[in-house]
Design goal:
The protein is of the alpha/beta class. The longest helix is centred in the last third of the chain and has 22 residues. It starts with 16 loop residues before the first helix and ends with a strand. Bound molecules: S-adenosylmethionine. S-adenosylmethionine (SAM) binds next to strand 2. This is Site-specific DNA-methyltransferase.
C-alpha cells in the first residue's frame, strides 16, 4: 500500500508488487524472452500494474465484477492528469453545493450502512455519489473519480476492517476522515501517482477483463503466469466489498451476493457450496479430479462425518470437492493460453477445515500435470497456524509458491 497506483485501493493482494517486478525481470534475464504475463485471478491488479511499470504486456482476469472494475480503473493511470483534476474538482464543488437528500436518514434502517456511518459522514458521501452520477460521462476519467469515492469509504467510517477486508461493525476506530477532505486528499495522491508513472516511463500495456476463468477464455500465448488464487480456506471474496457495493446500490444486502457476485467466483467458501446443490459422488468421479480421486474422496468423507459433530455443520466436504474441480477446470483453460515451456507461479496456502488437512499445493500441482504441464515444485515461504492459542484446530499449515513448468 506504499507504491504508486497500487495504493489506490486496499485489497488482499496475496503478494507484493516488488516481488512481481523481480520475477518478471528474472524471467526475462533467464530466458532472454520478453515476458507476456497472464494473471487469471487479478484481484485489484497488482501483477498487471507491475507489468505496466516494466513496459511488459499482460492479461488479467477477475471474476468478481466489482473488483474487476476497480482493477480496470487502476489501469487508467495514463489518463490526462489535467482532465482528472478538472473532473475531481467539479465533483467536489458540485457535492459541496447541493443539499442533502431529504430522505437521507433512511440509510440508518440498513443493517450495514447504518452501523458504519454517522449521519454527517453518510450525507457527505451521498453528495459525492450524487455529484458523480450527475456529472459523469463515458470518458475514462470518470472511472477514476468513481474509484476515488469507492476507495475512501472505509476511511470515512468509524467501524473497523478486518485483515481480509471484512467490515467489523462492532469494532470502532478513532481516526475517521471527513469525506470531502478524504476525496480531495485522494485526488492529490492519485494525481501525483499518475505523474510518477508517466515520468518513470511506464507503459499502458495490460488488458484486464471481468471473466470467470473456469470458463474458456483466449489471449495470445503467454509465457509467464504470476497469480494467487483463492485458498480452500472458507474466505468469502464475494463479501469483501459488500459495503462498497451497497453504497453504490449494486446490492441491497448479503443475500444479493449470491446472484450478483458468486456465480463467477471459484467455490472456496462453504456459503458458496451448499450440500443440496452438489452431488459429492458425481464431483469426485469427474475425470478432471482423477489424479487426486482417492485422496479427495477420503478427505471429503471425513469432513462429511465430522461436520455432524459440529454446531455449524458447515459444508466443507462439498466446498473442497467444488474448489478442486473448479481449479482443475481452470488449469485446462490456462494450458490453452500458456506457451510450451512457460513458467507459472501460484502463491497458495493449504487449509484444515474442521482440523482435516487439505494438501492444496500438492493437489493443485497434480491437477496441473494432468492438464498438460510438465513439472511442479513447492517453495515454502511461511508457516501458519503454529501458535495454537484461540485456534479452532492445531494442524500446522503453510503458505508458499507453487512453481509449475511446461
Ligand atoms: C488472492 S486474490 C488475488 C489478489 C491479487 N493478487 C491482487 O493483486 O489483488 C484471488 C482473486 O481471485 C478472484 N476469483 C475468484 N474466483 C474467480 C474466478 N472464477 N475467475 C477469476 N477470478 C476469480 C477473487 O475474486 C480474488 O480477487
Amino acid at each position: 500500500m506504499k507504491l504508486p497506483v497500487h495504493r489506490w485501493f486496499r485489497y488482499s493482494a496475496g503478494f507484493s508488487a516488488e516481488w512481481v517486478n523481480s520475477e518478471i525481470l528474472k524471467y526475462q534475464e533467464e530466458t532472454g524472452n520478453k515476458a507476456i504475463v497472464l494473471e487469471p485471478f487479478t484481484g485489484s491488479g497488482t501483477t498487471n500494474i507491475s507489468a505496466d511499470s516494466l513496459k511488459v504486456k499482460s492479461y488479467g482476469f477477475e471474476g468478481h465484477p466489482f473488483i474487476a472494475r476497480i482493477a480496470k480503473a487502476k489501469q487508467l493511470w495514463d489518463t490526462s492528469i489535467l482532465d482528472f483534476d478538472e473532473a475531481g474538482k467539479a465533483t467536489l464543488n458540485y457535492a459541496m453545493s447541493i443539499k442533502s437528500d431529504t430522505k437521507i436518514d433512511r440509510y440508518k434502517n440498513d443493517n450495514l450502512l447504518g452501523k458504519c456511518y454517522s449521519l454527517e459522514s453518510f450525507e457527505k458521501l451521498d453528495r459525492l455519489k450524487r455529484a458523480y452520477e450527475k456529472l459523469s460521462t463515458t470518458e475514462p476519467v470518470w472511472e477514476l473519480i468513481r474509484l476515488n469515492i469507492t476507495s475512501i469509504l472505509r476511511a470515512c467510517s468509524h467501524v473497523g476492517t478486518a485483515q481480509w477486508q471484512y467490515v467489523l461493525p462492532n469494532k470502532s476506530k478513532s481516526k475517521v476522515l471527513d469525506p470531502f477532505e478524504a476525496f480531495s486528499g485522494k485526488l492529490e495522491l492519485m494525481k501525483s501517482d499518475m505523474l510518477h508513472a508517466v515520468s518513470s516511463g511506464w507503459e499502458s500495456c495490460s488488458k484486464i477483463e471481468h471473466q470467470d476463468v473456469r470458463r474458456p477464455f483466449l489471449t495470445e500465448k503467454c509465457n509467464l503466469l504470476i497469480s494467487s488464487p483463492p485458498y480452500p480456506n472458507n474466505y468469502d471474496y464475494a463479501d469483501a466489498t459488500r459495503l462498497e457495493m451497497m453504497f453504490w446500490g449494486e446490492i441491497n444486502g448479503w443475500g444479493d451476493l449470491k446472484e450478483v457476485v458468486r456465480p463467477s467466483l471459484m467455490r472456496s467458501c462453504s456459503q458458496h457450496s451448499a450440500a443440496d446443490k452438489i452431488d459429492l459422488d458425481e464431483y469426485i468421479s469427474n475425470p478432471l479430479l482423477s489424479p487426486i480421486k482417492d485422496e479427495i474422496a477420503d478427505v471429503t468423507k471425513q469432513l462429511d462425518v465430522i461436520r455432524h459433530t459440529k454446531g455449524g455443520k458447515k459444508t466443507y466436504h462439498t466446498m473442497i470437492a467444488a474448489y478442486f474441480l473448479d481449479l482443475a477446470q481452470t488449469w485446462v483453460n490456462l494450458r490453452n493460453n500458456m506457451d510450451k515451456g512457460s513458467k507459472i507461479c501460484f502463491v497458495i496456502g493449504d487449509s484444515a477445515p474442521y482440523g482435516i488437512h487439505v494438501p492444496a499445493e500438492r493437489w493443485l500441482g497434480d491437477l496441473a500435470l494432468a492438464a498438460g504441464f510438465s513439472e511442479y515444485s513447492f517453495e515454502k515461504l511461511r508457516d501458519r497456524n503454529v501458535k495454537w492459542k484461540n485456534r479452532t484446530h492445531t494442524v500446522p499449515l503453510h503458505e508458499g509458491r507453487l512453481w509449475i513448468k511446461g
